[in-house]
Amino acid sequence: MRKRIAIIGGGIAGLAAAVRLRDVTPADTEIVVYEQSGALGGKLRTGELAGVPVERGAESFLNGAPGGGESAAVRFARRLGLGDALVHPAPQPAALAIGGKLARIPAGTLVGVPGDLSALDGVAVPDADSDADTGQPLLAPGQDVAVGELVRSRYGAQVVDRLVDPMLGGVYAGRADQLSLRATMPQLARTAETEHTLRGAVRAAQALSRRTPGQPVFAAVAGGMSRLVEAAATAARARIGLGLPVRELVRTGDRWQLVLGPAPDPRTEDVDAVILAVPAKPAARLLAGAAPEAARLIGALEYASVALAGMALPAGTELPELSGFLVPPGEGTLVKAATFFTRKWPHLTGADGPVIVRASLGRAGEQERLHPSDEALLEIAHRELGELAGTRLPAPAASWIQRWGGGLPQYAPGHPDRALAARAALPPGLAVAGAALDGVGIPVCVASGERAADDVNSYLDA
Question: GO cellular component annotations, sorted alphabetically (predicted)?
Answer without folding.
Answer: cytoplasm
